[in-house]
Amino acid sequence: MDKVFFIFIGGYILLSLILVPFQYRYVEQMEKMRRENEKKGKSQGEMMEDMGFEEQVLHANAQGSMLFILANILATIVYKVKNRNKAV
Questions:
Q1: What does the alpha-carbon distance between residue 5 and residue 64 come to, in Å, rounded to a whole number?
Q2: Per residue in 23-48, pLDDT tens?
Q3: How confident is the model at residue 50 (pLDDT cuts 50, 70, 90)?
């Protein structure tokens, strides 16, 4: 039973590590969109309203799926570390 549990955990960690580059690109683009909308004076809610249906569904799946939680956290940490010295 322990062996099966560790296989699932190991598989989840491996999958998360594989997904980090994809999630990193997603985090990077969302941050770019946030900065552009900030310059226009738009809030995050207005940004979401301006997104098409397909984009909203993709955003909800990328942010809300339990499968992507670890990859999202790791990608966000990597993004913040790489961009900590850049001016916002």
A1: 24
A2: 999 999 988 988 888 898 888 788 87
A3: confident
- ∠ CA 87-41-54, rounded to 5°: 95
Integer Cα distance of 62 and 55 in angstroms: 10
Instruction: Give the helix ranges, DSSP H, for 1-88.
Output: 2-40, 44-50, 53-64, 69-82
Using alpha carbons, list the distances in angstroms from residue 34 to 2, 10, 61, 87. Answer: 44, 34, 19, 14
| Structural tokens at position 79 | 């993004």
Rounded to whole angstroms, how far apart are CA atoms 27 and 75? 7
Give yes or no for a contact between 31 and 79, defined as CB atoms under 8 angstroms apart: yes
